[in-house]
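Chapter summary example.
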Amino acid sequence: MTAQKQPRQPSVPTGHGGPTYQDIIGRDNTPIPDVLALRSNPPQPADDIPVEHFTSKAFFDLEMQKMWPQVWQFVCREKNLAQVGDYWVYDIDRHSIIVVRASETEIKAYHNSCLHRGTKLKPSGSSSFSRALQCPLYGWTWSLVGSLAQVPCDWEFPHLDRQANGLTEVRVGPGTASCSSTWTRSPAECSTRTPPSCAGSRRACTPAPQAPRPSRTTRKAAFAASTKR
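The structure predicted for these 229 residues follows.
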């Protein structure tokens, strides 16, 4: 009789009960960023976590205000933005971010909101190709680099400063295989931060500067002019 060949068992590193995340990705042929190879298990408090942290609307609102806008978040893989014009919409709670390949060498991200009436430029959860970012309601159109390109009936907006009404940018950083984003309002708050996937990568990765937000006066003027139709 011929002995049956036993299935190969994965090697289990010593010191713990099974392979860690770092052990698994370490077997990959592609070099990984240093930050992903770190092993850390700092002491954790043994106190019970209050149930309200999971059920309280006030605590959730505090997280949305204090935490999520301040930290890098994985949005999509770079292969999802392979061609110029490819975009990906990332939503978290009431925030909606559109990430788009603006050129062969640049990926940009913006708040997914028309500066005219606040309509979403692209549907939540969508990803596709677009030559420009156009509002589906009134047709205001921005280029892929965020500049205001077209305003229907622009004679009704003689006061509109096109230079000041580009799409509001969100910081985005491509790593070796993914795109990360953070939308901290103050540029100084995380001007030196980079997405976790970028550290040690072979590709340069720095957060995009935040574009100046149109003044409230400009927004009010544009809204007032549009309501006179």
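To summarize the output: The beta strands are 73-77, 86-92, 95-103, 106-111, 127-129, 133-134, 141-142, 148-150, 169-174, 178-182.
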